[in-house]
Amino acid sequence: MFKLFPNEFLFESKISNEDQKIIEDYYLNQIISNNFENQNIIRSSVKSDFRVNVIDYKLYTNIIGKYVKDFLLEHSDEFNLRFNLFSFSNCYDKTSYMASHRHPGADLSMIYFLTGGDVTSFYPSNFKLRELGLKLSKFVEWSSDYDIIAEKGKYVIFTSNLAHGVNPSEKNSNRVTIASNINII
Predict the structure, then answer these.
(1) Strand partners, 91
(2) pLDDT digit string (tens) for the chain, length 185 residues
């Protein structure tokens, strides 16, 4: 059964401590130490491998895919709903930022926080989203900006047309995320 999203939404949760440790041990130093070439991401100063994946995300996809699948099964009438994940990492230093942007071409998007303390801001605009077949009854809809405080192991799934961004930080430590675009097939 397919339904139209009336508004944007986001869903927050955390992965298990065991899964969080596996992802952190495998990816954190790899992402921080990677000297990403300037990817020329518009209105951004973040180091990212968005345009050219230099890190293998198979382990991440296997782990985080379980949480995406559970989310889709809980909020869909489709039992065999399948999806693809395209993932990339973002490493923010103290002055790095990501201006407000959307993820066109994806059905849903996701941010997984490898480190904490960062704030990701979401800016709803009531754009319509194509039909995906997800039930919205369990989501809170809002009409003003919404900030998410990053915590290790937290993930956020949201409609890909929901504008979001990251401001520079007062902290001197790296802020690291793995972002994913989710396409339902």
Answers:
(1) 47, 176
(2) 223 334 567 788 999 999 999 999 999 988 887 755 544 444 455 666 555 556 889 999 999 999 999 988 887 777 677 899 999 888 877 777 777 788 888 989 999 999 887 677 776 553 333 334 444 444 444 445 677 788 899 998 888 888 888 877 777 777 888 999 999 88
Q: Cα–Cα distances in Å, from 74 out to 21, 45, 62, 101, 180?
A: 25, 37, 19, 28, 20
Please state, in angstroms and rounded to a whole number, the distance separating the CA atoms of residues 140 and 142. 6
Helices (H), 34-169: 58-74
- The answer regarding whether domain 10-184 maps to CATH 2.60.120.620 reads yes
Q: How far apart are CA 63 and CA 20, in angstroms?
A: 9
Q: How far is it, in rounded angstroms, from Cα 85 to Cα 64?
A: 10
**Where are the domains positioned within the chain?**
10-184
Bridge partners of 113?
Answer: 177
Structure token digits, residue 140: 């809170």
